[in-house]
Structures are given as C-alpha cells and as structure tokens.
Amino acid sequence: MVAHRLRINRPALQGEGMDLARKKVNRVVRRTYTRSQVLVPVDKGLLRASGRMELGSDRGALVIGGVVYGAEYAAAVHEGRRALTIRPTRPGGRLRFMVNGQVVYAREVHQPARAGRPFLATAFREVAASEGFAVTIG
Which of 35, 97, 98, 114 has a C-alpha 20 to 30 A away from that of 63? Predict the structure, then answer.
C-alpha cells in the first residue's frame, strides 16, 4: 500500500495569494497612473500635478489600490458638465475679469456644455485589459 498525503497550510497559502494579489494590484495602479498622466488634458498642468497613486491597502480578503486626481475641477473635466450661466452674487453687481489684457465687466457669462474627456477611465481600461482583467465602470 502506498499513500501520499498533502497538507495545506491555509494561512501560509492565503498569505502567498495576498502577496500575489498585492503585486498585481500595485502593477495595475502604477501602469494606470502612468498612462493617465499621458492622457490627461493639460492647460496649466494643475490637473496632471494633482494625480496620485494609492497602492495596495489590505481590507480583509481584499487588496485595494487606486489612482486619484484631486484638483477641484477633475470630475468636470473627466465627466463633462452641463451648460451654465455665471452671475454676480450681489444684486445689481457685475462680474469683472481680464480678456486679452483688458478689464471687462459683464452682468452674466454663459458657458456652453463641455463633453467629458475620460482620461482616467480610458487609462484603466487599457491597462486592465492588457493585464487580463475584464472591466465594468459605472
């Protein structure tokens, strides 16, 4: 009679799996950040400079990482925005701003709707697909 037994050290196995998951998540986060830095629209560079990575934090059996753009207007650039009219806060007031080096006053300013430029979602889809992940956003 021949017998073979296999004993699995579950905590060690889970530790190995978590290490692999952490490495994979960190790789996807780093590559997504790098690709999004290429795709982000640049005017003055403030949006690009506001980007940061959040690498592999463990939450129980999950490994979570992400890319964040913290500029106040990041969501409006990424998702787009509706048309809007800007008016002064005080009744009867005027808006004051510079156009071509000259001071201009107006009672209101109309801005058209702007289509989104989803640089981060595009970067994530590209990287995740190349790493073998299926992505659903939304």
Answer: 35
pLDDT at 11: 65
94 falls within a domain: no
Residue 31 lies in a domain: yes
Residue 101 backbone phi and psi in degrees, to 5 = 80, 0
pLDDT tens, residue by residue, 112-130: 999 999 999 999 999 988 9
| Residue 90 placed within a domain | no
**Total domains in the fold of the chain:** 1
Q: Is residue 35 situated within a structural domain?
A: yes
Cα torsion at 10, 15, 16, 18 (round to 10°)? 120
pLDDT digits (tens, 9 = 90+) for 61-78: 778 888 999 999 999 999
